[in-house]
Specification:
alpha/beta; five-stranded antiparallel sheet; Beta-lactamase; D-tyrosyl-trna(Tyr) Deacylase, Chain: A
């Protein structure tokens, strides 16, 4: 079969398939080195990218900040230290680090206590205050669906993020028709309370949902869970992770014998009348290369959105969502990515209004493949049949281990964008965006897998 015939077959396979034939679609496959178009279908057409949107965010972060960049979190104090007594407050100034306390790792708090003691502080007359003023108070992206707010995958984004901005709610299910009981939450949040309507039913899946807004102490629990299941956990977002961090730090200080007179609190809005501060200690995150690896391989919305919001602070302080949108668009437009018709609402792809073309992603991927940050970039992408969100793509086929790409999934949608290593040593760059298809995401993925095998000449 000639190359032209194979290409025509590939295009026809997608456009005539009962599932994808009427879908909202944009496809482009291109030779990375030569720019030769291998296959395409409406490559300029913008469609919702879902989590493939993270490529715009992580690529821009790498190019602007560098792979070795580390997010600071700064301990500062107001007032003076006299005879071991801090006559003022101790501040935790956040700079959007998404990794503080990730997966419950809080060993850094011991170092913070040691730094306070090294400064000669034995008693604090004020409070530990979480300073979250680097970002404005718009912690929940207005482009996200209301039904997502409060769920673990759509947490509020703050200048101080902690514990992945996630709490685990331990429930106990009972007999059919009863309301599941809230047993405990991890980590403990002192003032959160639940309006619980989770029913136990004759089902086999977890159908429970958590909803609520940033800073609000209320969380609504709805949906259904299997009856007589015993204890199990569901995840929701932390209403105020900065305040929780300040409380944990206060507790650690008191346990270490350092008196803190007042209870922990937080500041969400910059106040020019606040007294001047003195820097005491700076904590640093791991390098950006590790942060974008977590973002892309595990499709971490918190990490992506924290990067997105932080980039917006490059325009003005406090950082706003609008500034983040403008920066992302301007950055890629200046580098020749055809982004002029794209719709950018967030940095993680959770907003259903997001829309980007296959051509834009292919051009972005081409730029990053030639970047000085190429090594960190490639290491951040899942590998087909092996890692992250690509584990189920092409396992046991000739393409296992040969595709490095980001996936994006929502109902009726399956998207991929990345690179294909060809047997002859060439690399192809591709974006396949399929939306509003009448089928489950896994069924759409199987069609895309068949397409990839076909277009790469591996379907024999």
């Amino acid at each position: 079969m000639s190359l032209l015939s194979a290409i025509l077959l590939s295009v026809t396979f997608l456009t005539s398939h009962p599932v994808t034939g009427q879908a909202n679609m944009s496809v482009l496959v291109q030779n990375l080195k030569t720019g030769e178009v291998i296959d395409s279908y409406r490559p300029d057409h913008v469609v919702p990218p879902a989590s493939v949107m993270k490529l715009l965010t992580t690529g821009a972060a790498l190019e602007i900040l560098g792979s070795g960049y580390k997010f600071p979190t700064i301990l500062e104090y107001s007032g003076t230290i006299e005879n071991g007594v801090l006559q003022g407050d101790l501040y935790i100034r956040g700079c959007c680090d998404p990794s503080l306390g990730w997966k419950g790792q809080t060993a850094f708090l011991a170092r913070w206590v040691k730094a306070v003691r090294a400064a000669g502080i034995k008693s604090i007359e004020g409070a530990v205050i979480a300073d979250m003023t680097m970002l404005d108070g718009d912690a929940q992206n207005p482009g996200w669906l209301c039904e997502d707010a409060g769920n673990y995958y759509a947490p509020g984004i703050f200048a101080l993020n902690y514990y992945g901005n996630t709490m685990n709610i331990v429930l106990k299910s009972g007999k059919p028709g009863s309301v599941a009981t809230v047993m405990k939450i991890e980590p403990v949040v002192e003032d959160v309370y639940f309006v619980n309507h989770i029913r136990c039913g004759e089902i086999k899946h977890d159908g429970a949902f958590v909803s609520g807004l940033p800073y609000s102490r209320e969380r609504y629990l709805t949906g259904a869970v299997p009856s007589n299941l015993g204890t199990f956990g569901i995840k929701g977002d932390l209403p105020n992770p900065g305040l929780l961090l300040a409380r944990h730090f206060t507790a650690r200080l008191r346990e270490a014998g350092i008196r803190v007179k007042r209870d922990a609190t937080y500041e969400a809005d910059y106040n020019p009348l606040n007294p001047p501060r003195t820097e005491l200690y700076t904590h640093y995150s791991g390098p950006l290369s590790e942060i974008i690896k977590e973002t892309n391989i595990n499709s971490n919305n918190l990490y992506a959105e924290a990067l997105f919001r932080y980039l917006g602070t490059r325009y003005t302080l406090p950082g706003t969502i609008h500034n983040s949108q403008d920066l992302l668009r301007d950055f890629w437009r200046r580098r020749g990515v055809p982004i002029q018709n794209a719709i950018i609402k967030d940095g993680c792809g959770l907003a259903p209004q997001d829309a980007v073309s296959a051509k834009a992603f292919v051009q972005l991927l081409t730029i990053m493949a030639k970047s000085k940050n190429r090594e960190a970039w490639m290491a951040s992408l899942p590998v087909s049949g092996q890692t992250g969100t690509l584990k189920t793509l092409c396992p046991g086929t000739p393409l296992e281990g040969r595709i490095h790409a980001k996936s994006g999934t929502i109902a009726g949608t399956k998207n991929f964008a990345g690179y294909i290593d060809m047997p002859n040593g060439e690399t192809w760059v591709f974006a396949i965006l399929i939306n509003s298809a009448p089928g489950k995401a896994r069924a759409i993925q199987n069609i895309i897998q068949q397409y990839l095998l076909d277009v790469c000449g591996e379907n024999k």
